[in-house]
Structures are given as C-alpha cells and as structure tokens.
UniProtKB/TrEMBL annotation:
It comes from the Bacteria. InterPro entries: P-loop_NTPase. This is AAA domain-containing protein. Pfam families: AAA_24.
Length: 282
C-alpha cells in the first residue's frame, strides 16, 4: 500500500509550489504575451498553435507540438508516472520510463522548469480530434463508417486524462491558455465561452484547475468613493485586466479557489501567482 498521511506543513509547501490555471481571452487579446510576465528561465511554453510571433524576444524555452500523440508524451514527462495506470496505458510507469530512456536530454530540460505554459488548449483539442478520428473507436462496428459520436467521446476521455495528469504534476504550475469566443443567442444576449472541440472537456476544465480567469479589455471609471473602477469594454478598452472571480457582472469565465484575488487583477501572471501562493488572505 502506497497510501500515507500528508501533514499540514507538507500540504502548505505543495500548495505554494504549484497552481493549475486556465486563462481565456478573445483571439488577439494578448494571452501569449503574458509569457513575458513569467520568469523565462523557469518557464517552458508548449507551443501547439505556432503563435509565438508576439513573444519572439522572450528568452524562455518553447517546445513546438503538432501531434496529439506528442502532447501526450510531453505531458507524461512533465507529470511523471501515474501509478494507477495499466502498463499499456498512457502515463503508466512503463510509458514514463520509456520516454525518459528515449529522450534523456529533453526530460532533463523539462525537469528544470517550474512553470508550464500550454498555448493553447484550443489547439490541443483540435489535435486530439484529428487523432481521435483515426482510431478504431471512431468507426462504427456495424457499418464500418466514421462515427462522430465515438470520436468526440474518445477526444473527451483523452483530453481530460491529459489535463488531470498535468494537474497532478508535482511542484509545477501549469497554465492552460485558450481562445474565448463571444456568441449572441436567440434572445440577443452575449455569451462568452471557451473555444474547444467537444463540449465535455470544456465543461470539466473549471473543475480540474485551481484558477480560471479571462483576459479582457477595460476602461477605468471613477467610482462614488473616488476609487478607480473597471468597466469591461471589449471594443474600445485600452487596459488589459484579468477577470478572476466567478459571478462577475460581465458573465466571463472565472474562478478563484485561492480566495486571494480581486474581481480584476493587472495582466501580470508572475504577480498573480505570487499573490495566490504567498499573500495572506484579507
């Protein structure tokens, strides 16, 4: 039996050393440029969308990923072995040992990184869908023709498995970046939702990560007490802010499990992580 009691001090040390976060924003909002607010020497960017032009002067390491199978392997190297996985399954001890044996230099480089910036989860699900369509589960046993429902089911299982594996990566902060799209429903109401293939992974993601936030454009206003208030202004706003709390007045995806963040925060991930992990509540 590998079960053991975790002390309060151990739990606190682990909490201060890792955070999982989903960061959404409209295309072109500047999500990728937030890499510049993270310590370059401690951060690796998993580049799934070939979109690092905006941070070409950033001094950190990046790893281009063009196939879902490669994304799974990288997640295994980062997250380590899952003792519950069967030997022939992804993230098993056999899978992990094989990868470290085949790619010792890559494994060592990844071991040195404390922060993993996944850009983007939108493209991760697209790669997963392309992969899922090639699998036997995506073909109807009765007709031999493609089975779209089977492909989406496989996509959901594999993507959620990858996200949860990275969630458990010891001592790592993992930031999943995704596109946020604005939809107008039949009642002419604006709805903001993550752009991801399949609905199940998008629905479960907020329950997997510690923090959910949306990067948006805001305009400053002076409140009744003279303090600065921020108005969500996606068309004309000039200040980028991170929306961090659920139930916000703009209906943007957000969740603060730490309880330490304001309704909006400056667009600085390094400062945000410091506040989440080290600041005293209240």
């Amino acid at each position: 039996m590998s079960l053991r009691i975790v002390t309060a001090d151990e739990r606190l040390r682990e909490a201060q050393g890792k955070t999982t976060m989903a960061l959404f924003g409209p295309s072109g909002a500047g999500k990728t440029t937030l890499l510049k607010t993270l310590p370059a020497e401690e951060t690796v960017c998993l580049d799934l969308e070939a979109g690092l032009k905006s941070v070409q002067d950033w001094r950190g390491d990046s790893l281009p990923i063009r196939r879902f199978a490669d994304a799974v392997d990288i997640a295994c190297l980062i997250g380590g072995a899952n003792p519950a996985a069967q030997p022939d399954e992804h993230f098993s001890e056999a899978h992990h040992a094989h990868l470290r044996g085949q790619h010792p230099e890559l494994a060592a480089r990844l071991d040195a990184k404390r922060i993993v910036f996944v850009d983007s989860i939108t493209d991760l699900t697209r790669q997963a869908m392309a992969w899922a369509k090639t699998r036997p589960e995506a073909m109807s046993e009765r007709t031999g023709k493609p089975d779209t429902r089977g492909a989406y089911g496989l996509l959901a299982r594999e993507v959620i498995g990858l996200l949860k594996h990275l969630q458990h990566a010891p001592g790592r902060t993992v930031i999943f970046v995704g596109i946020l799209e604005r939809i107008t429903d039949e009642m002419n109401r604006t709805i903001w939702q993550p752009q991801m293939e399949g609905g199940k992974a998008a629905r479960e993601l907020p329950g997997i990560v510690d923090q959910v936030m949306t990067l948006g454009l805001f305009s400053p206003e002076t409140g009744p007490d003279g303090a600065t208030a921020w108005r969500h202004d996606p068309e004309k706003g000039e200040t980028r802010r991170l929306v961090c709390r659920s139930g916000n007045p703009w209906g943007l995806p957000a969740k603060d499990r730490s309880g330490r963040l304001d309704l909006t925060e400056p667009a600085d991930l390094g400062a945000l992580l410091s506040k989440i992990n080290h600041a005293s509540k209240g």
